[in-house]
Design brief:
Helix content: 40-55%
Number of strands: 6
Structural class: alpha+beta
Number of domains: 2
Strand content: 5-15%
Strand order of the largest sheet: 5-2-1-6
Number of helices: 14
């Protein structure tokens, strides 16, 4: 059944719910900590990316917001408990949506959350101070969840500072990841796809184009200095990118069409065209000096541009 909320995005609903009920509750009952907390909506869930629709309302969707608290020496556990209790008392229905009776799978997404707990869960470090190894291994979708959504208020500044710290990959890490994904694109799309088709291995051919497409999308997000979100939202997010987001239709066709001989040849030509467009962007950013359409050669050229010698000499697949 359609509700009043079906016309608005979750972020808008969250902000209205906070402005109408949450702001007054905090101001009246917790004036001493009002300027020490951050309020907003970020983390897991399509609404945090702005991708929610009518289908999103059937699970883990409610009128809610997050209250991010600094460490216990700033706001103690007793205050945090009382704040959560008051948050729970806020109206149970808003704009036709009902509050959830229990936390969704994956833990509490709304209400009172320690800033340190939030960032530890998303990037493995409470302050967003990642080592090279952590930058290479923390899932990209998790980093996307750490910096998505909107922070409505953060006078204290801690939460926003950490978000800024991890808002995008350091350049050397970005180059390492691009190099690895380029090599996957070369192997899966330029080399293995038609070989699988010629052998009559249609399933293997489809896996090849899937791997090519997934790696290509990672490269496009990295060129845009954005994190690629969880797989079910990755194509939706691709549309919004300013650089090569227009490859959406081509990539969708490649992975959703069959591998009959003539179509396979067309898909192979499309792969080469996509490779050429990727290489053009790499050259525009002075990431490669290779002069060819072979993505493998460009992968190693990109890797050679990494300034950190230790990172440069790591396996080219270290970041993927």
């Amino acid at each position: 059944m359609a509700s009043e909320a079906s016309k608005e995005k979750g972020l808008e609903i969250s902000k209205k719910y906070y402005e109408l009920y949450g702001k007054a509750m905090i101001k009246e009952k917790f004036p001493d900590i009002e300027e020490k907390i951050a309020i907003g909506l970020a983390g897991s869930g399509s609404e945090c990316f702005g991708y929610d629709d009518g289908y999103s309302h059937d699970h883990d969707f409610e009128p809610a917001f997050c209250i991010f608290l600094p460490q216990e020496d700033i706001i103690d556990s007793k205050t945090a408990f009382n704040l959560q209790r008051e948050y729970t008392k806020l109206p149970q229905e808003f704009m036709g949506l009902k509050r959830q009776k229990m936390s969704p799978v994956g833990g509490n997404r709304h209400g009172v959350i320690r800033t340190s707990d939030f960032f530890t869960s998303k990037c493995g470090n409470p302050f967003g101070q990642l080592t090279v190894g952590e930058w290479l291994t923390v899932p990209e979708y998790s980093l996307a969840e750490a910096v998505n959504g909107e922070i409505f208020k953060d006078n204290y500044g801690e939460f926003s500072l950490i978000r800024d710290r991890i808002s995008h990959y350091p350049n050397d890490i970005r180059l390492k990841k691009i190099a690895g994904y380029l090599l996957i694109m070369a192997q899966a799309g330029q080399y293995n796809y038609l070989r699988c088709v010629d052998r009559g291995e249609s399933a293997a051919a489809q896996i090849s184009v899937y791997k090519f497409t997934e790696a290509c999308m990672h490269v496009i997000f990295l060129l845009n200095e954005k994190y690629m979100p969880y797989y079910k939202w990755s194509f939706r997010a691709l549309k919004d990118l300013s650089r090569l987001g227009n490859l959406y239709d081509s990539l969708e066709f490649i992975i959703s069409s069959d591998n009959e001989k003539n179509r396979a040849q067309m898909k192979s030509e499309m792969i080469e065209d996509i490779a050429a467009l990727i290489i053009k962007e790499l050259k525009n950013d002075s990431m490669t000096e290779a002069v060819c359409n072979d993505l493998e050669k460009h992968a190693y050229s990109v890797n050679d541009h990494i300034k950190d010698g230790n990172l440069r000499n790591m396996d080219i697949f270290s970041g993927v």
